[in-house]
Amino acid sequence: MSATLRLPTADARSRPLLTAELVDGTEPGSNAIVPDRVIRVWLFGILSRFTTERPLILHLPATATFGEAIDTLAHRLGGQFAELVLQEPRKTFSHCRIFADGKHVENLNEAFERTTSASNIEMILVMAAEGG
Amino acid sequence: MNIIESDVTRATADDTWLKSSCSLCYGTCSILAHRVDGVVIKVEGNPDSAVGKGRLCGKGVGGLMTHYDPHRLRVPLHRTNPRKGFNEDPGWKQISWDEALDEIAAHLRRIRAEDPRKLVVQRTTTVTASRAPSQAFVAAFGTPNFSTAGGGLHCGNGAHVISGVMHASWSVVPDFEYCNYAIYFGASKGHAAGHASCSNMGKAADARFRGMKMVVVDPFCNFAAAKATEWVPLRVGTDAALALAMCNVMVNELKIYDTPYLQAKTNAPYLIGPDQLYIRDPKTQAPLVWDQESGTARPFTAVPSARMALRGSFTVNGVVGRPAFALLGEHLKKYTPERTEEITTVPAANIRRLAGEFAREARVGSTIVIDGVTLPYRPVAAIAFRGSQGHMNSVYNFLAVDLLNQLVGAADVVGSCLGFNPTCYGHPDTKLPYYVPKADADGLMVTGMWMGYHYPYPTNKPRMPSKQLGLQDVFTMGMTSPFLNSTDQEMLWEKFDVPYRPEMLINYGANLLMSIGNKDVVAESLLKYKFIVSFDLFLTETSVLADIVLPDCSYLQSVDSRSNFPFIFSLPAGLGEWCWPIRQAVVPPDGEQRRYADVLLELADRAGFRADLNAAYNATYDLQSPFRLEGDRKYSFDEICDADLRSHFGQERGLDWFKQHGLIKWPKKPEEVYWRPFVDVRVPIYWEFLKPLGEQIAAITEPRGLKIPRHYYQPLPDWIGCPSHACDAPGFDFYAFYYRDIIHTNSFTMENPWLDEAARLDPFSYTIAMNRASAEKRGLKHGALVWVETEKRRKVKGRLAVTEGIHPEGLGIAALAGHWGDGMPIAKGKGVFFNELLEVDWEHSSPVNLNLDLCVKVRVTAVETGQ
Amino acid sequence: MIPLNRRYEQLIQDLRSELRPQREWAENRGLFLVIGHFLVGVAGGTWLCSLLFELRGGLAVAFCLGVLGGLSHLAFLGRPERFWKMALHVRTSWISRGFWGLSLFLIGGVLYLVPQFLPGAPWRSGSVPAAIGYVVSLIGMVGIIGYMGFVYSSSRAIPFWNSPTHPLLYIAYALRGGMAVLLIILMFEGRSPDATLTAIKVWLVVTTVVVVLYLFEIYGAVSGHNPAARQSVRDLLFGRVAVYFYGGTLLIGILIPAMLVSGFVFPLSMGTLAIIGFASVIGDFFMKYTTIKAGVYMPLYPRVTRQVGH
Amino acid sequence: MRLGMVIDLKRCIGCYGCQIACKAEHGTPPGVFYARVLKREEGQYPNVKQFSLPVLCNHCEEPPCVDVCPTGASFKWSDGIVDIDHDKCVGCRACMMACPYNNRYFNDGNQNYFGDAGSTPFERARAARHPTGVVMKCNFCRDRVRAGKMPACVANCPTVARHFGDLDDPNSEVSRLIKERGGFNLHPEAGTKPSVYYLPA
Q1: Of A12, A19, A64, A18, whose CA–CA distance to A38 is shortest?
Q2: Taking residues B150-169, what's their average pLDDT?
Q3: Cβ pair C8:D55 closer than 8 A
């Protein structure tokens, strides 16, 4: 059980990106290096605070699952990101919405290749409360 | 413009009926608005629609008096007096929209850069159309602090969450078409306000005409009880005891229950170990059941349900396990009718009779053929709502009532207790919207559609409150929290190391000062904000505390692409039609009024998070390619609505199509309405997850000095008294409670002079109902002005209405009356402000779901002359 | 006059009660109807008494009272400019009949009185026009004395007024009013003690009849089982009308004149007779005012077994 | 032809929909109710019954209001609707005292619902129908009925408790309901023969 979540401040946004092997320094869409798959991750809402990059570029094996993608993101962006997104390993909160090329991803154990030719992943936390 | 002449002669160009949606309550019935020469001269129900079927309640048909209220806000206002308080004149100054938006956007930019969680957004439940735009806005901004104010707090955590767990829906209602015997506990569905209110009024009347018997358990004989075949008055807040006693009679005395249903559709056969937890298969972790044929314990997935034991005691892996149902049977035994009579005041003989009637009317084992489909037939329903669940013991109260349904298999089958539309296979053309409940690894039901912050089941793992100020991260059964406004909020935030404090509030139409609890505590919480923006129709008591007040458009001036979606919320349940109506503007804004959703878009642009908002709309509206909003392109709200509609119903059915047609509808299938036999899910009659949840919560809170009473976290429901039941101070001998009036929606409609007039003609709307004999005993007369006072010295004044139709210990007050502000002059001074009596703190909140206790023990004294 | 919004508040309160008092004919502009009926009744009675006692001045007073009564009626109407339309429904409407009665009374009165007071008039006393006037005014007088009670007793919504004694009571009122005015005029004209004595005796008899009829009416309302009629009596004796009843009807209208007539306090003089006359007239006004104001609509409820909450 | 209404007290829940639908249809000023809802209770705790009674002009076959009217302003159409010709009414209010059903109102001055804040565009649009100084009441929404619609209160009732039709036609829904369900009138003893019937709760 972690103590408090300290959200990155505006300063933290400017910190350098960590793992060089995960980063494609080129413009989105270019295929300079050819790993198994190039994935552009768009983080919105509170998640956007974890990086100044929009989109973030991930290079993953084609057999990778969405869950692995999120693990990679968590590794890269820090535990606080994971805490917001994952209620337990490989299980996102119901209010965390992930879209792969516009399609809602519900099963994190699904591999990219099984669902779409996913090249764009959007992720946002949606919260609501209701009554009456 | 000479309106009079044109109306009479009608020789005018503009004489139009427009198809739209009501918004006088969240029922959101479909309307036709008659506009002549720019003036709306009549609002009627839209007979094409399944929502209201062309008929409206008093509020709906009187809506144009709210729309045309001269006291509506017309220009943005800015506070000039920095001091805030009940006795401070805000010194309002008119400002331009540009100034207002720039100032708000500057605050938003600053807070978003610092810590977006410092923004709190809250909305009224009344305007359903404000939900999705608010939700998208907070998601895009990045704050988890989104609240539905008092409307959400006072029922959301109990009635809605437990309906979600047991029926995969927001609420439950009898299957009026086929039900023969309904028993209501503190509910008025079909007889007053509420979800799908007008449709339900018609359906309930049909059922009554058909001969459906209705028993209403309620301290007050109004709305539903007035139309019931039997009114069962009981002591306030003891509904759970009565329901459990009825269950006891059914299980242990009459031995009537639906064995196949319990075996197949509940966790009744799951084996429970001495630790009160499932005994699980060591390999798969699946809960075990006892296979009567093989005489072994096996995973529930591996045994045909008919072979699962419901009774007995079995040794499994070295421990003694008993089926959950056996434990329930044992547990219920303490609720003997005799003991329950002492708790509830309902005579033991009546409890036995009611249990017998309910059990026998259920016709366990019977089937019926509808549209060629053979379906289980259980024409009984036990229904609970705000009244019975509005207590600290909210979870058990609601669950105990629903157990009646579960015992006889009267859940989402023909004639039974129905969730509002938990299963939808979508429009024939697009198969959208599509949602069906599904099972989790334990076989228990997860709802297919939900609106809350988290799903009702499975509950999230409790964590430190990294996100929400309301502590829903810790108390994961709670949706709306009292701690945004409680006396002890600072103490709690400190305890839980909440690393930030709220700084800015965006309020949409909620009159929080009236809708949560006593006004002093709520005002104190509001005064802590550095900056408050309030979108409102009127300068309400709450908006008076804002820094900027923005003039909102009324429902007749607004657009909404999904008036009655989600269907689990306010579309009529039962057979009939799926119906997706929209709202369109009938008249333009007056003065400088602007639509809320448009303003939010503008704010996102000015504060620089339009791309986030577009993404949030994609997620919130579940927009499909190619209708998804792209990048940071500036869409108007009309365009977003258009995308929503095309995405769901096809390229050719955009906003213009809907403006012309008003709605789209298609028939419901029997397997959608009576989905339970077709979907392989179970619901918990034994809440195994509750005890571990309590331990996990306690592990967080108890080191910080917040004790978790474990008796609220047992897997089987109990009746636990309210704080009011513990008050034995001399002279404090009435249980005061509030109820929702048939003619009013929260505090909002009291400004409507037609509704106000009707309420003044009503014997109870603006009075305090007291039993005649009780009044006589105390020398109090009908019409007397009295003080109602709590032990904590909170008091309200009002006129007594002496009646035979209330429990001798009850004191009934219609909710949310008693406005004191000048911004709603029609409402000012009318009725009694019940919530003033309510404490808002941990002590009065459910330790499970944070529900506030809504009953109070009070003393009633005549107001001295001259006082 | 009470402002509209106060009247609206009052109406809402009234509609909340099971036994709703009528206010249209006694309050605000409705007061003019009571005054009008009072004046017209006294006018008719005075005309009759003046004819019997051959008091020319009395006839003039009666005529003037009639004119004032007519004006008061107009002041009561919501649309006074349409007053002439009231002539149209004599067949069924007592108001229409009353309208004709007053019209005939005033027209006949002019024809009859003008030559008596204006020597230069185009026709003389005893001429055909004057004789016609005499007859017409007599018919009108019968009309105005007689119609009022029927206006009330034909008001089916107000059970208190629906008694058959009501028309009789109004006739008796008229006579008592006439006699009272006569007493006053007698004082001014200084007539012989004989005439005065006769007048006071007649007044006494008429007053007795009025009191008996009044008691009879109240008894009828109480002994009947109509809750609205009984509420009227409660309002009259103990409720919202009681002040006017005890102060106006009883004290001024009955007790003071009775005390003066008895001669115990002051010896009977022309002055006391006039006071009796004035008191009697004022009392009459209150008698009418209170019975009208005490009117309560019959409740709308079918099968109400027991009143609860009110 | 005798138009009449049947109100099913078993269906009615006292929601005030009829009262307000009528307000919306006619824009009647404060203090004028063509339709309203009464609420009462019977019995003693705990055996108590609450009931709602929607009331309106009974459109009597033998209307006492028409008899007492001195000007003929109150009259009966051939279809049985009892109406008021506002151009003929002098405002004597005798009809109000004659109506055993309390369903006539005197419009004694220009009023609007928001008082000093002024009348709403809606109220101004409706004001022409409401001359002052006259008595007003329900006319079964005669304009709507002539246009082939149901009266506003009937069309709007969410519980479908109100029915409207020809009482002279034995096969009409209203006649059938009265026969089958034992429809009754208010104050039958008044001998007014109302055209508004109630079905027992």
Answers
A1: A64
A2: 90
A3: no
